Amino acid sequence: MARQRLTIGTFGDINTRQTPTGRYEARTRYRDWDGHARLVQATGATANAAKRALKAKLADRDLFQPADTALTPDSLFKDLVTYWLEDIDLEDRISRTTRNLYERNMRTLVSPSFDNLALREIGVARCDKFIKQLAKLSYSRAKQARVVLRLALELAVRHEVLPRNPMDHVARLHREPHVPNALTAPEVNVIRAAIAHWESAANHISGPKPDGQLGAIIEVMLGTSARIGEVLAIRRRDIDITSAVPSIRLAGTIVSRNGELTFRQDHPKTAKSTRVVALPTFTADAVRRRLAKVGSLGLDGLLFQSRDGTPLTTANVRRQLRQVLEGAGINGVTPHMFRRTVATAVNTNASIELAAELLGHTDTRVTVMHYIQRSELVNPATAALLDRAFKKDEE
I need a surface site. Which of 168, 206, 219, 360 has the fewest CB within 10 A? Predict the structure, then answer.
């Protein structure tokens, strides 16, 4: 008689027999994950009891365990986290900064609530409640937790430790509509004046005098819409101020990680963010003044740098800008606000497509949602149009 062909995770006919001790034994062949069919058996006081014991034993076998991991549905979530981080390092597809951010968000936001749960205990209801509770405290934290929890559980699904990802059915996050804030031209000039007064060292008491970099950094951000990290990563080779139309190539960013020296990364936030931007007159003038001040500068020398020649950190520039402006009674201004200000000005005077191109966006929806300050003023042409449509008959 030919042996029954089994697929992985299935068993054949169950045979029972009474043992010399009077108990009953049920046995069958079960095909494990590795493809080998093995004999599995269990005993009971009766034939039916033996069959029930055998089926319970088969149900507990690790159907989803792949050959290259010790994880099972009964493994703790913290073991999955370790395995997930190791997998990220093995793939080496995301930046070290993003990898560290994922680990931080996992350890601080998710792990405290999930570490001691077995993977099989993590279902849709538990995940949904966790995300909603976190969202009450902070939309941003809930969003970050959702990302890393989904990624870790997705790895468990891909490696067949779990049959499905519960995060696929968690309710979407909702937040109040966000209105991007941008500066007006008069506000920009007030900021310029405050920085110029500080850089003049009129009230300087002790320590190194301002070196003029902060004002130039602001002018470059206003003239290029670049992120602060992109501005601080500009090298001499990226600058062309001799052509009829001066320009800057934005092709890097500054990265600071815990325990590491700040360095220039050889691409912006995304590969598609690399772009060459024509400079308005005020930015070109600021760049020329900066180049004249630094004197001889190698092609890979940074336009903005510390007194030791090392890259400036984005955190230090943000802190310096905040301190200078708060000293002048101006609050709430961040480097990213200049990026939104530029986007809003270009959209108002040209088009959303041109604003997106300048910002390095491939999708105008991102520009509209996060960078364009909506104007309350409706085009006054509607008044003339309605006059024509509903003009009163002359009495």
Answer: 206
